[in-house]
Amino acid sequence: MSMNWDDLRVFLAVARTESLSGAGRQLKIDPATVGRRIARLEEGLGVSLFAKSPQGYELTRDGGRLLAHAEAAEQAVSLGQDDLSGDGDERLKGVIRIGAPDGCANYVLPRVMARIAEDHPDLEMQIIAQPRLFNMSKREVDLFVSVSPPTSGRLLVQKITDYHLSLAAMRWYLEQHAEIAGLGDLQEHKLVGYVSDLIFDKELDYLEETGASEADYTSNSVSVQLNMIRAGLGLGVVHDFCLPFVPEMIRVLPQELRLKRAFYLVRHADDRKVERLSRFADVFCRRMRDEVDKLEREA
């Protein structure tokens, strides 16, 4: 049987989403059509590519063997598109999906996207904000921003920039509650932070550096934590790049507690030769550095 790219594209979508409905949403076709396409592919090859389980569609041994060839075909198609679009127009086009932790996604990336869009108006950028790590083998995103460099997997990792975090509270909250002259005074106040068992990266565990063992009000979302502090529930560790968005929120004990972390850009190793993604990564990192620096100076 001769396989065409459309069949392999459907196969890849099911392999990565582990469901017909997920693949259908990704490809914008009906799940029943996805099922028929997979059945036709299996019939033509004379093997079973997926095993249905309570968790979804799992690759069989033959499916795993086909996956490597399908991903190679995907890369070849991408490289071919890059080559054919190299017509002297330096502007980026098409769709690029970026994953990021929600703090970065909410407060930095929209500004970054706006700057990139000025020079590349035909580029469609999608931001996926998730308080977790992304699975590049399933191609959930084209690239993602991480707060620590991954140490496993076939990935390309480059540092984007350092950023800072500070203990912060609303000005009116500080005027109405006990004075804070040192970290020891924090025991008289409520703290806002992450849900401890939902911290997906060790770099997000800030509480130890405040001297507190646990937070009183918690969320897995940076944006929710920021709004908890804004509502006067207590103090919390806040990204400096968030502070310009809440003018009445101010740093507390800035000389005693200011944390430094870093953002990293992560891509699949197979995308090393995809010129469009490499160009985007360069532009993206430059704009990220500019925007983080600008927001921190405004804080």
TrEMBL record:
UniProt entry tagged with the keyword Transcription regulation: yes
Q: Which UniProt keywords apply?
A: DNA-binding, Transcription, Transcription regulation
**Which parts of the chain are coiled coil?**
none
The record's section on Pfam families has: HTH_1 (PF00126), LysR_substrate (PF03466)
The molecular function terms in GO held by this entry are: DNA-binding transcription factor activity; sequence-specific DNA binding
Gene Ontology biological process terms, A to Z: DNA-templated transcription
* Stored PROSITE patterns: HTH_LYSR
Annotated ranges, domain HTH lysR-type: 3-60
By sequence similarity, the record places it as follows: Belongs to the LysR transcriptional regulatory family.
Per its record, how is this protein called by name? Transcriptional regulator, LysR family
Give the organism, scientific name.
Celeribacter halophilus
